[in-house]
Write a structure and sequence with these properties.
Structural class: alpha/beta
CATH topology of the largest domain: Collagenase (Catalytic Domain)
Helix content: 40-55%
Shape: globular
Radius of gyration: 27 Å
Largest sheet: 4 strands, mixed
Number of helices: 8
Strand order of the largest sheet: 3-4-6-5
Strand content: 5-15%
Length: 222
């Protein structure tokens, strides 16, 4: 630390406190410093008043009576994701064996760094998804499609279709994590778990694919 020599006396000639300053700096009247400090405090107080903390919450569009159930689905999926994150963070590269197996199956690697990368992604998803809006299309049959999210576009809804509402809780959690990863992690649809390529894809491809995130949350989140 550089030592500094201060000039000036504790009290100025008019009884105003003298502000100490490093030698070599041009001296200003003490009142200028006091005014500056008061002004900074006033600005800070004003910013605090006009910039309140934004409350983030899950919202719904055209869902009405379905809102309570979807809110529960969302909470369940987020809790499963948090449980998964804890297990991934505790992974040492070989154990727990269940984590190693899930990483190998869905991300094609047992390396600790891959576990950390997946955990980081899920942490970002959980943090960002607390302001998601779900849009209900409970009468719209999209075949095998349960839900849909636009890729990486802010302020867009996650659409839920007819088949979603008749699915079990595990499938719903998987679906929400999958779609939220499109929305907040900018993942792609690069292969589904029923396709042969899912098991042979490389780790880089898996990290950028939405499907493994939902699957690993189902595997480790309970």
């Amino acid at each position: 630390m550089t030592s500094q020599r201060f000039i000036g006396t504790p009290w100025g000639p008019s009884g105003v406190p003298s502000v100490k300053r490093p030698a070599g700096r041009v001296a200003q009247h003490p009142l200028i410093d006091l005014q500056r400090q008061a002004g900074n405090a006033a600005v800070a107080a004003l910013v605090q008043r006009i910039s309140p903390t934004v409350q983030r919450t899950v919202t719904f569009d055209d869902c009405e009576a379905l809102e309570f159930g979807i809110a529960g689905d969302h909470r369940r999926a987020m809790e499963m994701a948090r449980t998964t994150i804890v297990k991934l963070r505790a992974y040492d590269g070989t154990s727990p064996a269940a984590v190693a197996a899930a990483l190998q199956k869905h991300f094609h690697s047992k390396r600790k760094i891959v576990a950390s990368m997946v955990a980081n992604g899920l942490e970002n998803l959980v943090s960002d998804a607390d302001d998601v809006q779900y849009e209900c299309h409970e009468q719209e049959d999209q075949g095998s499609t349960l839900a849909e999210a636009l890729w990486c576009i802010p302020f867009t809804d996650v659409k839920l279709f007819k088949k979603y509402f008749s699915s079990d809780d595990t499938t719903k959690a998987n679906t929400l994590i999958h779609e939220l990863s499109h929305r907040y992690l900018c993942t792609f649809d690069l292969g589904y778990d029923w396709e042969p390529s899912y098991g042979t894809a490389g780790t880089f491809r898996a990290l950028n694919n939405a499907e493994p995130y939902g699957n690993i949350v189902v595997a480790l989140g309970r």
